[in-house]
Amino acid sequence: MDKAKLLEKLTSQDGTLFWETAPIAVVVKENVEGSWESLKEMLDEFCIEHDLSHVMELEEAKEKYPLTYKHIKAWSLLYRAEKPLETFRHIKHADWFGSFPIPLSKYYRRSGFNWKKAALGRVHDLAHHPLLQSERDRREGEWILIGDETGSGHELLHADDDGDGKPGSARKKLAYIWVLVPPGVELPATPSDFHAMDQKNFKIDHLAALENLEKLCTGSCMSFVFESPDFVEEKERHPRGEKEHIPLVIRNTLPLVIDYIATQVPKKTSQSIRIMSERIGNNWKPGTDPTFLTSELKRWVSNLRDRGRDVELKLSGLEIHPKMDHPWMNYPDAVGFLTGKDIPEYLAPYAEKILGSSIQVPYASSFLGTVFPAMTHQLAENPALFVQNLVECDVKHLTAFQTPFIQNMCNEAFSRFSPLDWRSFNEFMIHQQRRPSGRFIARMLHDFIDSQIEDVLDSLISHSDRLNMCLTLGWHMDQQGGDVYSFLKLVKREWLDEASKSMRLSWLSLTTMARQNEFNFEIRSAPFVSMGFLENELSTPRELLQLLNDAKNPDSDFMNLCAKLFSFFAFQPQQDPVQIGAISDLNKVLVAYQWPHQRENRRHAIYGAEWALDYVLNSEDFFKIAEHNLFHLFHQYLGSGETTSSDPFWWPATTRLFYIGVANGFIQPDDLRLGDHIDQAILWSQQGPLIVRMRVAYWLYKLMTELEMVPPDGIYAGLKNIDQEFHSDSNVYAMLHSSYLLDLNNANEIGNKNDLIQQFRERLERSSQSTKKYFEKCEINDQILPCTLLRFNYS
Question: Where does residue 170 rank: exposed (0-12), middle (13-18), buried (19+ CB within 10 A)?
């Protein structure tokens, strides 16, 4: 290009010179003859002739933006410099046009609008057309995975690197977002300089990007959001010295994405995956060797084939792009912004649609990097062992990654079970049913088998196997507040006649305990007498204590029976000091018994605390009993490597204790235990067994407001919406849920009172007669709230 042609292009039809109204970017495309130096020389002469200035993009930009500079040779910003306003004269390394600067060197580091930054985005946009055309030419059979992060990842720093598990002041917690683009799907370009945080300048472009995804997110484009929790436990942080998080985050998250892709790839069809990720730091930049990903992908695909999936996937490329070097790299940013707090109201419908159809899971480094790969290996080799080993997993991780990953893996394992596998599984579950992870496994079984229970029962070898399967499913429903009787009614008399004594006891215990789901706490010991498990009927805690004291070397079956009878007495309000003392002594015996595993001792320590908290208003001594159980006895039965996270039910009991302690002056607001407990309790309100999340959220909201702290929005939102997971919108879980919401509304005016009352009444109407009778004293519009009727571990 010569100077005459340049002047012609910079002059409008009416003779106006474009540089009079704004700085002008002069761009030379790659197919134009000449070099960077010759262009600079020509512009220098042109500017002298027309009393202009120009600032040339450095030649090093070719290395920084390799894709863009395949189509652009060079560019410069041409302008007529003006004097800065008086308030800006101290600013160095910049010229001025109007009220805004034009940076002259890399030493200019001020934020805010500047002409060169604004021009840079439009210049890079010129490369979009040829870049999109090159994508069309190479897309056949290729999946594209576009990744980017938000947040600094400070919360992932190890304690030795001054990490405390929190994002830090003014920082956003890390989230890594993958947008999956299937073969045959083409995304429109986004502005090169797009940044979702800048809603002032990019609102329209953000809406356009979201509309593109919204059209494609049903069955086509899928987003995966891996986000750090509000508090990252030490075991989930990155290794010592690891301060550039993204390479490890990518390595940890890709297996789950590949597992999902494998479910979408047609059998016996060779397809490829191209990974596009934004440059981060010096260890993740263009030119990074993709060998490690190639070998990892081969390992993942080999595992999938070992599991019977006939898939052919290979890595077609790892592309690490800096910002502004590819027209699709902004889509993860567009999605990631939706995960933040207090997004603009106009984005809410997009968040509901796009995030609602995406996969959102926490970023849990140790689980993703160590546990999940081991699980996939076990699933390939031995499905029955895979299921059994789930019991050793952290239940927070099991619930967080349940949908779709672990649920699909469990379905895969169960579908490969033989009759002998079912036998060993149900025998295994006899001893694991009370563990939170055991309850999780039972839920996975229920979801798998619910529609085919008759066929599975017919395939089993013996009546005992069939009874045991019904007991596994029945205990699961008891623990999930569901319909236990739907499985009990499948049990036939001849199955019980052939069953062992312990299995018959389990069946009888289940039929008895199921009544608690309908708020029926009347003690009924006669069936245990008639079937030979008790010599005499019991009607008081004192009688049960005497039975325990008289027993010589009782086995665990007998102790479990006594524990179940204890729970009925714990739910009943006692006035007689003798009976209250007997319940306290009963709990001491149950805690001290030599159970097959110390988790049973911990469980009874928790039960004793929950019971004692019901009587705090009688005497502070009961608060001290609860505190002793939770902070001394419970810890006394923790083995090597076990913590309070080993038993999720410790968290609602302890959160309840802290609230009652603070509210009644038994614990001071500056108690050092409170801060750490609240940080971790927030996690338990989001992850773990359903009843744990529900009760922790309720008591944590009350505790934080009592301490005049503002609870995170997610606590109430999670509690309010948890009913979507209920097996039944009646009886125990539904009534507890309504009781908690009504109490929070009464104390904090959160939620719509009339809607909550209506929901409570509708649920009560759908419930059993015993549930209706239990709440008959409750006059919603009067002084009695349903929560005041709750006791023990329903509180």
Answer: exposed
Q: Strand, coil or helix: what is 553?
A: coil
From the list 147, 407, 404, the residue with the least C-alpha distance to 253 is: 147
Whole-model pTM above 0.85? no
Flag the least confident range among 114-128, 510-524, 643-657: 510-524
Average pLDDT over residues 343-361: 90
Write the DSSP assignment of 195-250 as a string of letters.
-TT-HHHHHHHHHHHHHHHHHHTTTT-EEEEEE--SS--GGGSPPTT----HHHHH
Cα gap 652→670, rounded to integer Å: 21
pLDDT, position 217: 60
CA dist., res. 238 & res. 316, Å (int): 29
Q: How confident is the model over 551-568, as a mean pLDDT? A: 93
For residue 583, what is the enclosing H or E element?
A: helix 577-592
CA distance 720 to 111: 41
d(CA 108, CA 115): 13
pLDDT at 290: 74
Q: Please give the full DSSP string across 452-469, using - where no structure is assigned.
A: GHHHHHHHSSSHHHHHHH
Do 719 and 697 touch, CB atoms closer than 8 A?
Answer: yes
419: cis peptide before it, omega within 30°?
A: no
Contact call for residues 596 and 620 (beta carbons, < 8 A): no
User: Quick one: which H or E segment has residue 376?
Assistant: helix 372-381
Q: Would you kindly state where each structural domain of the chain is located, as residue ranges?
A: 3-125, 142-364, 382-502, 519-593, 594-794
